[in-house]
Amino acid sequence: MLYENPGAAHAGRSIGAVATLAGSLALLGAVLNLIGVGRLGLDFLHDPGDFDNSLAYITLLGGLLTAAMLTYGAILLFRHDETGRFTVIVTSWVWAAIGVVGLALALVDYSFDYGVEWFAGTGPVAESLFALTGIVGAVTALLAADPIAALVALAPPVLTALAATPRYPSDRATGGPGPRRGSG
Fold it and tell me: For residue range 102-113, what is the model confidence (pLDDT) as tens digits?
């Protein structure tokens, strides 16, 4: 008995608009995370005194891992593999969880006692734009305790997760991946 790749049976048809949107948003999220990692990494190398070392390292590693997982999930999505959808959903909701914590802290006007403020004095517009840069942006919005930046940081992961959440109609119509009726 040979192992059959479930994606190979679907190679002749398109993945559909929703799956294409989810994969594209996942790739965009990966690029945004890499931009954030690059920005934080360069600023950290030039002036490490402005950053908390352990938080910067963890944030950089989190951004790289998020970019890798979103890219992997998007590739699997484009190959008709259901695992890609779940990978994108879980990664996006973990990213969004950081944004939710940042929004909650901003709404209760919490300020950190140890005074960590990345990119302080950049202004609300720059903070909101930087909040789009993945995990790094979400952590920066969390540290700034700015509700607008925290809301902006929530937009990319939530949109990506919502786009990846529905089962794709083309799979149901052709008996593709997923549970089949009467098989169980």
Answer: 899 989 988 776
Q: Do 134 and 66 contact (CB within 8 A), yes or no?
A: yes
Largest CA distance in the chain: 64
Query: Could you give the C-alpha distances from 38 to 43, 73, 133, 139, 179, in angstroms and in order?
Result: 8, 22, 10, 15, 42
Q: Which helix (H) or strand (E) holds 87?
A: helix 82-107
Q: What is the pLDDT of residues 133-145, one digit of tens each?
A: 999 999 988 888 8
d(CA 175, CA 23): 21
| Residues 12, 22: Cα–Cα separation, whole Å | 20
Nearest residue to 164 via CA among 8, 10, 12, 28: 28
Q: Is 177 left (phi over 0), alpha (psi -120 to 50) or beta?
A: beta
Helices 17-46 and 82-107 pack at an angle, to 10 degrees, of 50
Cα dihedral value 32, 76, 161, 129, nearest 10: 10
Tokens of 61: 């590693």
Enter the tokens of residue 78. Answer: 């484009």
In the chain, pLDDT over 90 holds for what percent of residues?
Answer: 49
Total-model pTM: 0.80
